[in-house]
Specification:
- There is one protein chain.
- Strands 1, 2, 3, 4, 5, 6 and 7 form a seven-stranded mixed sheet that branches. The protein has a four-stranded antiparallel sheet with strand order 8-9-10-11, with no helix packed on it.
- Among the domains are: 83 residues; 37 residues.
- β10 and β11 form a beta hairpin.
- It is elongated.
- The chain contains two helices and eleven strands, in the order αββββββββαβββ.
- By secondary structure, the protein is mainly beta.
Length: 185
């Protein structure tokens, strides 16, 4: 074996020996009757925090595990609300009322995979007042729409017009019309 190769093998063996010594020094042995102490664990219970929530006046249809009615909740008065799929213990939402509430957000330990890892508990209703309700279906009657995008179709004069019980329009090369027995409104 060449001298260069012996030096390389010697370095590898030296590094290996240092790593093995360092690893073995970090372990507690029972050579002298000592037993390794178990890791220290504390059961402080679930963590929690207070949070202020801003709740819209109306619930909306949403789909989580199943179709349901969701609150629309924001975490600041200036932010957009998001669908809130959980429940808030001790809170009953009244349609048409906007709320500002304080909740305790409590970590759920060992939560099943398909459930929330937190639960919400009402602490206080800070404010409750009538709010603007969401009109779930703005009227389409007496409106006219024209396709403006994508540009390659916009030149074909594609339109749709809604009346109280009918829709009609042009698809560029063909006209169309449909009637609704209930109403388009």
């Amino acid at each position: 074996m060449s001298d260069d190769r012996r030096v390389g093998v010697g370095r590898v063996l030296g590094v290996l020996a240092v790593v093995m010594i360092a690893v073995s020094c970090g372990q507690s042995g029972d050579e002298e009757g000592e037993q390794a102490s178990p890791p220290v664990t504390t059961d402080a219970g679930p963590t929690s925090e207070r949070q202020r929530l801003y709740i819209d006046a109306d619930t909306v249809e949403c789909v989580g595990e199943i179709p349901q009615q969701c609150l629309v909740v924001a975490t600041s008065p200036d932010s957009d609300g998001e669908f809130f799929y959980d429940s808030i213990e001790g809170f009953d939402h009244v349609a048409g009322t906007r709320y500002v509430i304080e909740v305790e957000v409590i970590e759920v330990t060992d939560a099943p995979a398909d459930t929330s890892a937190v639960r919400y508990q009402l602490i206080d209703i800070v404010d409750a007042r009538p709010g603007d309700t969401i009109d779930p279906s703005p009227p389409l009657a007496n409106t006219q729409w024209k396709l403006t995008s994508p540009a390659d179709l916009a030149g074909d004069d594609i339109t749709i017009e809604f009346s109280a019980d009918q829709l009609s329009g042009s698809a560029g090369c063909n006209d169309y019309e449909a009637r609704d027995r209930k109403s388009v409104v």
